[in-house]
Amino acid sequence: MMYNFIKFFKGDVMKKISRRNFIKTGLAAAAVGALNLQAAQDDEIKWDAEYDVLVVGSGLSANVAGIVAAEGGLGVALLEKMSRMGGNSVVSQLDFACVGTEQQEKAGIKDSIELFVKDLNKAGKGFNYIEQSYRIAENSKRAYEFVKARGVQYAEKLKHLGGHSVARSLETVGGGGACVQALNSHFESKGGKTLKRVKVDEIVLDKNGAAIGLKVREEYKFDKDLADDDAQNASGDVKFYKAKKAVVFASGGFSADKTFKAAQNPRLSLASTPSNPGATAGALKTMVKAGAMPVQVSLGRYSFGIPTEDLIFAIAVDGKNSKRFMNEDGDRQTLSDNILENMQKNESDMFPTIIFDTTGFASSHDPKRLQKFIETGKMKKFESLDELAADFKLNAQILKEEIKRYNESVAAKTDADFKKDLTKVAPIEKAPFYAILGAPGISYTPGGVRVNLNFEVLNINDNKPIKNLYAVGEATGGVHGYTRLTSCSTPDCISSAMIAAEHILKG
After folding, report:
1. Is 251 helix (H, G, I), strand (E, B) or coil?
2. Distance between CA atoms of residues 344 and 296, nearest Å
3. Phi and psi dihedrals of 102, rounded to 5?
4. Rounded to whole angstroms, how far apart are CA atoms 191 and 77?
5. Which architecture characterizes domain 305-439 according to CATH?
6. DSSP-assigned letters across all residues of 456-488
7. How many contiguous H segments (helices) and E segments (strands) does the chain have?
8. 135 carries an active-site annotation
9. Alpha-carbon torsion (56, 58, 63, 67), positive or negative
10. Any bridge partners for residue 414, and if so which?
11. Under 8 Å CB-to-CB from 74, ≥6 apart: which residues?
12. Minimal CA–CA distance to 473: which of 64, 50, 22?
């Protein structure tokens, strides 16, 4: 077992816990590895602030949950541990996969809930909960209309992104930054509060195991130089916030938590990350301490520095041995797994080099995008393979031999080494040559806590809801499975937040 779970404190001991002793007990428990803290009676803690709903996070799902609750007349606060709001949402394009939009209608595209679900399940490879696939597809248009009515803008052009059977992905005008800003402005116009630099340390449970508030630290300052900020950072002032109706974790994933990723899956630690540095496992651990069931935390969804559909026109050689090691034609998940597996095998932290010649570069689905990579220095241009090898610290002789063998395979239309379809490609021989590191990144973590279709967090002991505790968006696990289909985090985050908040209002 990944975690040791110990029983809640019970009986007279709990009756005697004052606010001061609660803190002391919590620190002592942490010192001996305790994973559950339970508050006594509500009135035995001096609450520093009270709200109807506390939402942990300030990204897309947090703001949507906050809006629904605030529009329903509840007092809501979003708690953001960083000095800026938005989490990973503001660094994402937030493309939006949706069925039945006016854009699809205008384009004459025939789509359906069933087809969307089929695509989601294909990407999930059986790791995903099918009922969640239906939830995403069935609520995608409702989610789209909800945020659009609250200031989020979408382009007219539809995208047909990888893994989707038809064009159904909308481009968010201004990307995630504009989207979150519009939603947060609406949220605050309805009386909601966004509190920055507030770090959540514990979920406070009553004697019946229901969530009644949070132990937090105000004026917390994230320290990017610490190996494990969640464990080592003691900054901030301890406070207790009461949640009269519910606590919602819209805290995202842990794609920037190298230590936690390595513990779950050593391969994940080799990948880079474009994520917000605050995307750590702290919130997940906090929910687990309260009894939540963690699921699929060893999975990772990869990003890639270059459109992977273009790699069919390139050759990839590993950074340590300068040798070709894989079929370059594949989706981002397959390519990333192959790269990281090769690095593990070589006991190397060196990413492979991806090489195009002039013909391959021009064959890209978007040569202008590759040209921008050159302008920014991400991709480099060389007049000879010797220059390229020297710059990327490759063995020039081995590299030339690998390219010669590859070109012979292209001529024969057969890749005996890695079974790449060579009928669609040209040999790599025409200067100038172009090179870029093939650096998989973890931008999304499919693992999190188990929830039901109301997004109530389920207890690991009996699989029943922990009363008044919810998790939405990337904080949940098992929704997408093996990998998340591109542009599907947006309908997931929005619809899960809407459903959770609607359930709170009913209750």
Report:
1. coil
2. 22
3. -65, -30
4. 9
5. Alpha-Beta Complex (3.90)
6. EEEBTTTS-EEEEEEE-GGGBSSSSTTSPPTT-
7. 16, 19
8. no
9. positive
10. none
11. 52, 53, 245, 504, 505
12. 64
What token pair was written down for 455? Answer: 């997004």
pLDDT, residue 43, reads 54
Task: Please write the tens of the pLDDT for every residue from 132-143.
Answer: 999 999 999 999
Q: Which of 168, 267, 301, 332 is catalytic?
A: 332
**Per-residue model confidence (pLDDT) at position 9:** 31
**pTM, whole model, 2 decimals?**
0.85
Q: What are phi and psi of 178, to 5 degrees?
A: -65, -40
Biggest CA pair distance of the chain: 81
Are 329 and 421 contacting, i.e. CB atoms less than 8 angstroms apart? yes
Peptide bond before residue 432 is cis, with ω within 30 degrees of 0 = yes
Reference 455, options 408, 498, 420; nearest CA is: 498
Amino acid, single-letter form, for residue 288:
V
Q: What is the pLDDT of residue 38?
A: 43
Can you tell me the distance from the alpha carbon of 484 to that of 115, in angstroms, rounded to the nearest whole number? 16
pLDDT at 303: 85
**DSSP annotation string for 389-440:** HHHTT--HHHHHHHHHHHHHHHHHT--TTT---GGG---S-SSSEEEEE---
CATH number of the structural domain 1-14+37-304+442-507 = 3.50.50.60
Q: b vs e for 4-14, b when ≥16 Cβ sit within 10 Å of the residue's Cβ? A: eeeeebeeeeb
Residue pair 482/123 in contact by the 8 Å Cβ criterion: yes
Rg over alpha carbons for the chain, rounded to the nearest Å, is 25
Give the C-alpha separation, 428 to 316, whole Å: 12
Residues with Cβ within 8 Å of residue 329, at least 6 apart in sequence: 311, 312, 420, 421
> What's the CA gap between 395 and 400, in Å, rounded?
9
Domain ranges (residues) in the chain: 1-14+37-304+442-507, 305-439
> Which CA distances in Å does 36 have to 218, 268, 295, 313?
22, 28, 18, 53
- C-alpha 329/C-alpha 310 separation (Å) is 8
Residues of the chain with confidence (pLDDT) below 70? 1-43
Q: Are strands 237-249 and 49-56 parallel, antiparallel or unpaired?
A: parallel
Q: Give the model's pLDDT for residue 454.
A: 98
Contact assessment for residue 76 and residue 55, using Cβ atoms and an 8 Å cutoff? yes
Nearest to 254 by CA among 287, 232, 221, 214: 287
How far, rounded to the nearest angstrom, does the alpha carbon of residue 135 sit from its chain's CA centroid? 19
